[in-house]
Amino acid sequence: MDNLTDILTTADLSIGYKNGKSENILMEGLNLHIPKGKLIALLGANGVGKSTLIRTLANLQKAIHGKVFLKEKEIKEYGAKEFARQVSLVLTDPVQSGNLNVMELVEMGRYPFTNWTGKLMTSDLEKVETAIQLCAIAYLKDANITEISDGQLQKAMIARALAQDGDLMLLDEPTVHLDANNRYTILELLRNLVDETQKSILISTHQVEIALKMADQIWLANCGENIKYGTPKELIENGDIERAFPYLKKLEL
Amino acid sequence: MKKNSSYKAIALLIPLLLALMILSISLGSVTISFMDVLKILTGTETQNTAHYNILYSYRLPKTLTSIFAGAALGFAGLQMQTLFRNPLAGPFVLGISSGASLGVALLVLLGVGVNGALAYWGMAISSTIGSLAVLLMVVLVSIRLKDSMSLLLVGLMFGAFTSAIVSVMQYFSTAEDIQNFLFWTFGATGNLSWAELQIFIPTIIIGISLGYWQAKPLNALLMGENYAQSMGLRIKNVRLFLVISTSILAGIVTAFCGPIAFLGLAVPHISRILFKTSNHFVLIPATLLLGACLLIICDIIAQVPFSDLILPINAVTSLFGAPVVIWLILRRKNISKNFG
Prior knowledge:
heterodimer; A: 253 residues; alpha/beta; Rossmann fold; 6-stranded mixed beta sheet; 5-stranded antiparallel beta sheet; 10 helices; 25% strand; globular; B: 340 residues; mainly alpha; ABC transporter involved in vitamin B12 uptake, BtuC; 16 helices
């Protein structure tokens, strides 16, 4: 285990919700690694704590126990801006702001880098342009975000996260609400981004088949068990995937 | 970003504001001609001392009050709508004005009175404290709820609660105190002397500066609080600054002019529709200028030109404002989708 190539690691991490004195722990004893330049897919049933894990890694929510390290420094020791320059997010929160166009949305990604007037420098504009090119949404630049399709909006949100230009992108169910083709396109886009930019990307998804094809590593979360991790091949061969998703076997035509 | 063309459009509001200012100064129970107004303002002719006095001790302070009060209310509404991501938010809806009323009611109805030399300071401070208290409670609730509909209901409940306390106090107060309080609730822009303007204007400028400083965080908040945080925004600080700015603006205006309804809600919507942007670097100057223009227009209507009649400003803003908002909503069909 070479720490230098890990962007993010966790040490004995427990996640869940605290409500007053009662704790609702969803996952515990997590020792996870996100290596540089890899696409990791987090699979698991609804309610197993995928979103909570992503929110905890993204510093939006406190860990119940244990630590999260981003490049050998604990995430809670980062300043808000400093952290945002390293880690960007795509969440399932709906973004509904009628007067915003795609260009302005992607430009938001440069927020942690601009001064208080929000003025974009040449380097910022270049990053925005690169992000738009990589996500192939140049034709949407002037479109209002309420007027584009869900798939197009998701690409714009990914471009925004890309423009933020950290080493790590966390995406919570980026393919939810999308049709079959778009689900594939989005994951293919993420695969290409990892290859082209050497960023690390963690996604949670229910698209088991596509994830097994595209991801470098799988984190498999099951209720009442520890997360299993490995390459797609390993997890298929030792039968973990089949046990977690019995429907795959039944569907095999 | 079409920012530059927006700024050009906003710049057009400045001559409009100046024209309205002159119009508002010339109209009233005594009509002073446009040329005379200009002459008096530029100091070339001071023979007509009656006109000079009317202008300097009454109409000019009144017009300045309208400009700053309108700008303050419009901007306060914009901040609240973005912070709560709710198109119905505004200083009035969330109970901030009710808080201010409670502050003033405590002062006036409990017999501390409005007659002393420190009366205006007292009213300004008590109303700011009142609005700050309610807004802080609203923010505390908003941290727990995260649901804008519940928040709105909580704001309305705060309003109902404070009104009830005010009613109880009225029940036990003297007729004279009640009358004083009632006049305050009608709203008025003409009660401020130059001495009071020296408190009023700088306080509003401070409130506006505090809010303007948060223009970039306001833009990030359009994406929702989670995204805003993920982009490096310190949500608690920003929320606090917006709360303080809004309380100062809504509190000071309510203290000196009474609770002026509708402006805080409508001006941000009109600005978004006119300038077709959600960029706060455009929306803030737009709401400031539009708010000022609209309150002057309401003020001109309230003094019923060419008559001795003066209507309560609060009635005028609502009478003419509510239909305008309904029309805007119908025109845009889905205001919550186009909001922000």
